[in-house]
Amino acid sequence: MKKIFRILLWVIVAVVFIGTFVYLYNNSKKHDPVYALVSPSTGSIERTTLLTGKIEPRDEIEIKPQISGIIAEINVDPGDMVRTGDVIARIKVIPDESQLSSAENRVEVARKNLELQESKFERTKSLYEKKFVSREEYEEAENACLNAEIEVNSAIDALSIVRDGVSATNAQQSNTLVRSTIDGLILDVPVKVGTSVIQANTFNDGTTIATVADMSDLIFKGKIDETEVGLLSTGMPMTITIGALPGVSPEATIEYISPKASEENGANTFELKAAVTMPDSVTLRAGYSANAAVILNSAKEVMTVPESVIEFAGDSAFVYVLTDSVPSQKFERRHIETGISDGISMQVTAGIDSISSLRGAEIK
Fold it and tell me: 2 pLDDT exceeds 70?
């Protein structure tokens, strides 16, 4: 019994040894790889580029005061529509003490002069009625009295402007009333009642009372890399994609490409602007982030192959064409002429025909 058990054990060991040897031998044999076959196809191909940017109004105006002072009244809120000439805010003038004193003194001097001229005119008038002075002297005295009266009114008006910022003769056009200069939408009102504001001058841009924009005339403003800017030109169409409005894809037309590059993160880019055409049913807000797709070039009904089957060597391109499949696949490396690529497929203009079978990925 023990002898039989021992023989059986040796048989099992031998079988395991032989099986292992056969397995290792088979694995050590070189197998010919098998590749998937790809055929050229006919279709349209487009080379596009994607630009990132924002939707902005073409005309965005900062409304600034024509006089310094304190905001006394604000008549609009962001989102309100205004027309040209609408009053946005009213400014309370804080007069300069020296100018105020000078204006008050001018009024006082003008009134004294008016009293003097009126007295002279009364005397001249009395003498003229008695025929003691000529008509010429009478008219001169009358004219001097009228001029003195005009001077008083002018001095009072000047005092009103210095003290209140309002002309007594033309209050509706007062510099204290800040008016919109265009028709549009109020985008921002960065001041509040009580805020001190200053007018624009040589040394200061002035305080912005409100920002107004015409939201019916929008543009896309973006950047394009220097490697692709030469492929663009004004008048080319674009398709806009807005992140906040996934269902809206307005059309746009390039109308400006900057002649000068700006450096950003080590790369040279050029500013680009395109006029956006929006349907009346869609409302856009200034500053929406957007992407713009531009077709750089395209070809229709051409032979294309997946770019993954093409081998590039310098400026040349090659594919491997199936020449035999029995007993194993055999391929010929063949030079091809290429055209447009969209990053997935590439146009082939010469080197293969439509019935060629090309080497694809290896089948594991």
Answer: no
**Residue 224 is assigned to a structural domain of this protein:** yes
For the whole model, what pTM was predicted?
0.61
Quick check: is 19 in a domain? no
* Coil/strand/helix, residue 298: strand
Residues in Cβ contact with 198 at an 8 Å cutoff, skipping those fewer than 6 apart: 65, 68, 204, 206, 207
In terms of domains, do 303 and 292 share one?
no
The rounded distance, in Å, linking the Cα atoms of 238 and 285 is 20
3-state secondary structure of 240: strand
Give me the half-sphere count of Cα atoms (radius 13 Å) on the Cβ side of residue 54: 7
Query: Element (H or E) spanning 324, and its range?
Result: strand 316-324
More confident of the two residues 26 and 327: 327
Separation of alpha carbons 199 and 195, rounded Å = 13
Same domain, 226 and 204: no
Domain containing residue 234: CATH number: 2.40.30.170
**Is there a single domain that holds both residue 81 and residue 193?**
yes
Residue 331's domain comprises 34-45+299-363
Give 212's strand partners: 61, 186
Q: What is the DSSP string of 31-67?
A: PPPEEEEE--EEEEEEEEEEEEEEEEES-EEEE--SS
Question: Quick one: pLDDT at residue 258?
Answer: 93
Dist CA 46 CA 72 (whole Å):
59
The rounded percent of the chain whose pLDDT value lies above 70 is: 86
pLDDT value at residue 158: 74
C-alpha angle 311-35-29 in degrees, rounded to nearest 5: 115
Same domain? For 219 and 280 the reply is yes
Per-residue model confidence as pLDDT tens digits over 128-180: 787 777 888 888 888 888 888 888 888 777 776 666 656 656 554 467 788 99
Residue 7 lies in a domain: no
Using one digit for the tens of pLDDT, what is the confidence trace for 245-262?
A: 888 888 899 999 999 998
d(CA 104, CA 99): 9
